[in-house]
């Protein structure tokens, strides 16, 4: 009986040794990759001297000025073309982006003006619009000090787009000739 018991034990051990390696591969790993979406955006040039592209760089009261390389007092065509746009934005993001443009008050000099936020000027306020190449000029967007409507809704990753603005200066006369400055903020968010 002992021999049969030992033989059975040895047979079971041999069987376990053969089966055990087959059971070793009961798990495997899966590599999970999570690539984040991101927004990266730029607009150039970073400065604009009103009436300084082809003009004198000096502004007058109650006058419309365009960021138009063809002429500071030249309105864009009915359908805006690249050559009529001073600025270029670039979408370096991994996603489509939406663009808005705001512009604050002109301060620090003799030509101070606040944004009237309606597109029209007044005694101490300026009116402003933004537009882009390819759009119908009559569809231009009011550029407010904050909360402007969307200028462009789907800039695809890697895309560039030409764009411009216009500002109509206040109606009251200046008190001197010291330059005032304002900050135009171009915002991009994921579409």
Which short descriptors sum up this protein?
seven-stranded mixed beta sheet; 1 helix; three-stranded antiparallel beta sheet; 191 residues; single chain; alpha+beta
Helix and strand layout, with pairings?
Blueprint lengths: L1 H22 L17 E4 L19 E3 L20 E5 L5 E7 L10 E2 L9 E8 L8 E2 L7 E6 L4 E9 L15 E7 L1
Parallel strand pairs: 5-6
Antiparallel strand pairs: 1-3, 2-9, 3-9, 4-8, 4-10, 6-7, 6-9
Please tell me about this protein's structure.
- The chain is α+β, with helices and mostly antiparallel strands and 191 residues long.
- It has one domain (41-190).
- It is 12% helix and 28% strand.
- It has 1 helix and 10 strands.
- The protein has one helix at residues 2-23, and strands at 41-44, 64-66, 87-91, 97-103, 114-115, 125-132, 141-142, 150-155, 160-168, 184-190.
- It is elongated.
């Amino acid at each position: 009986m002992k021999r049969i018991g030992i033989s059975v034990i040895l047979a079971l051990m041999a069987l376990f040794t053969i089966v055990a390696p087959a059971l070793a591969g009961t798990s495997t790993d899966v590599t999970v990759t999570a690539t984040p979406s991101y927004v990266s955006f730029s607009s150039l040039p970073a400065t604009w001297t009103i009436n300084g592209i082809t003009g004198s760089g000096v502004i007058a009261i109650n006058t419309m000025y365009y960021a138009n390389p063809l002429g500071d007092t030249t309105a864009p065509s009915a359908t805006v073309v690249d050559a009529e746009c001073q600025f270029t934005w670039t979408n370096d993001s991994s996603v489509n982006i939406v663009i808005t443009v705001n512009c604050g008050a002109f301060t620090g000099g003799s030509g101070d003006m606040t944004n009237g936020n309606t597109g029209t000027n007044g005694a101490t306020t300026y009116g402003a619009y933004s537009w882009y190449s390819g759009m119908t000029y009559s569809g231009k967007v009011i550029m407010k000090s904050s909360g402007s409507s969307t200028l462009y809704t789907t800039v695809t990753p890697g895309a560039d787009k030409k764009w411009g603005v216009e500002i109509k200066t206040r109606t009251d006369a200046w008190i001197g000739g010291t330059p005032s400055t304002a900050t135009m903020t171009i915002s991009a968010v994921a579409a």
